[in-house]
Fold each of these.
Amino acid sequence: MKEYRIITIPGDGIGPELMESTIAVLEAVQEMNGALKLNLEEHEAGAGRYARYGKRISDETLQACHEADGILKAPVGNPAVRTPEGTEAGLLGGVLRTGLDLFANMRPVKLYPGIRSPLAGYEPGGIDYVVIRENTEGLYASRDKGVGGPEAVADTLIITRKGTERVVRFAFELSRKRNGAPEDGVRRVTCVDKSNVLRSMALFREVFFEVAADYPDIEAEAVYSDACANHLVIRPAHYDVLVMENMLGDLLSDLGGATAGGLGMCPSGNIGEKFAFFEAVHGSAPDIAGQGIANPLSLILSAALMLAHIGESEAANQIETSVWGALEAGEIRLDNKGRAVDGSQAITEAVCARVRGEI
Ligand code: NAD
């Protein structure tokens, strides 16, 4: 029997609803895999915790994250809970991503069956790429550190050779494990930058092509970020793996998500050399919290990424194929805003039934 200690953070807004669904799926997976035991350990963190105790995450939780085999985090944040400086108080990105040195934010964008893409003519799997967002530097290195005011404030964008090299290498290694772009089956890594304007981005591109030389089996190309936003709409099938600076990745992965059924279809992993945590790409969606209509697949698929990362690929595939099958058979229905037509609970039950082999 393989046992894993997994930290779960239910978060804020729709977070607890998504976590409940995901835990139900993980329980079904364990029922079907007698040799797999996930010891889930719930920790409170986020805006709710900040409002109660004046701190978004406890030292005990941070310590537990350092010791655990896996971390599964639901969305956090409440726009009404803010720091004295005016930024949101409940977000954990800085603490976890930077604190655990999770340099690669992996954001798959994949069109599943039964999902209506706003782009015409794409079959299931016809959009299937991964955005790798550098996670520890770039513009967000200035998180909570902007200087100036009240009339002008500057945030600094930092790109380092070391930071770029490791994330670009991660992108090429990932491409090696994939089947290439849907358009032509070519394994391809695309550098997305604004090197026509910013020196920092020119360094990013320079390092990208240095690393690319170590991967002659994979096509390497570069595109400016504004053109890339256009391409992700008019020719998404061209892409396999894209690697980019922190804020660019934040923006373009959301754009990608919109083409593949909305943010509720978007899982992610934050991965470093020693640690990793997995979360939905989207936020805590206060506008639909408590209504039971959020799509939990973002966190369910994040749990599958986590299982694959800890070496439980079979369990990960079981979740992925169950989600695919339930969508294909119409057992899961989403409206044009990406919300659960029959409720979040129905989605959870559909995935669990397929994991258990009941359908
Ligand atoms: P959001 O991602 O929460 O919501 C954007 C839109 O997408 C909303 O209309 C929402 O209803 C919808 N949506 C999101 N997830 C959905 C799902 N699973 N199913 C169906 N619809 C879904 O973005 P926001 O409203 O700008 O931010 C809300 C809060 O979340 C803020 O406090 C923000 O700072 C925080 N946030 C947290 C994270 C994180 O925890 N990683 C990421 C982004 C935003």
Amino acid sequence: MTEMRIDVVSIFPSYLAPLGLSLLGRARADGLVELNIHDLRDFTHDRHRTVDDTPYGGGAGMVMMPEPWGAALDHILASDPDATPTMVVPTPSGTRFTQADAERLAGRPWLVFGCGRYEGIDQRVIDHYARRMSVEEVSIGDYVLNGGEVAAMVIIEAVARVIPGFVGNPESLSEESHSTRTGGPLLEYPIYTKPPTWRGLDVPDVLFSGHHANVSRWRRDEALRRTASRRPDLLAAAAGELSDRDRQALGESDHGCTGPR
Ligand code: 6GU
């Protein structure tokens, strides 16, 4: 397994300090990931270390200037002239980042994240580097953050944990919500551990039955019902893969719980 290299460029490098902790910290310690964080202001040349200016055409806010970005990215690229990274630019105007993207990016040897602040980065930065490498503008959801740093951390964590060798128990990857490695993308069923009764709430009886087929069927039914109620969009996408038994669990006509189980 060759190590993945990740570089992150930001005007708030200390925002990215959590990447040195916990899961990702372990991946770094295990030699699975090399992480380099760069301060964009180190690539400015004026006294005030300016990185932004007013937008051409007018409008609110400030735009990140192309020169510091060009200097920072050229510096990173020059560190390994024979390799070509994939560039990821977190932005609320990007394509939606999904588990499939995490799994795809986990196969790349080198990722460079450009974290914008203010209203965003001058488009020519993206257009210039897109001539030499794959550049992906991605959004982590339909809401607005102040900058790309937190989004980059979300993406890096999602990517790093699917690198082979990263998670202790690889089986735990295939059962989780949104996995693209098995069946359809349903939400996960509810889970329980000891004690059997807690504050008057009981663990469902079927989980004590030792009847594996019944447990599996109950879990799939719960996953189906949960997905129908919380993420009808996912259920619609999986509609072609549902069995008659699955449809029965969903109560087809009324989408409620019909009959005993
Ligand atoms: Cl990737 N960046 C910012 N600034 N806001 C976001 C986002 C990204 N994804 C959702 N909101």
